[in-house]
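Annotated sample (chain length 62).
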Amino acid sequence: MAELNGRVSTAEQIKRIALVSDEWLPDSDVLTPTMKLKRRGVSSRYAGLIEQLYAGGGIPVE
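Output written by the structure step:
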């Protein structure tokens, strides 16, 4: 992760991550039938987790 973060600016670097155990299926609230991400669906489904990441939760990236 450090190597990848070294290639981008500070604002673009990954600071914390969280893993979810949900399976994302095509044509669901998070993926289109052609496997493209639905940002609105991800934002609504994981709103609490996203808030925790911004508050300092999750796994810190070294």
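Annotation: The chain has one domain: 2-60.
Annotation: DSSP finds three helices and two strands in the chain.
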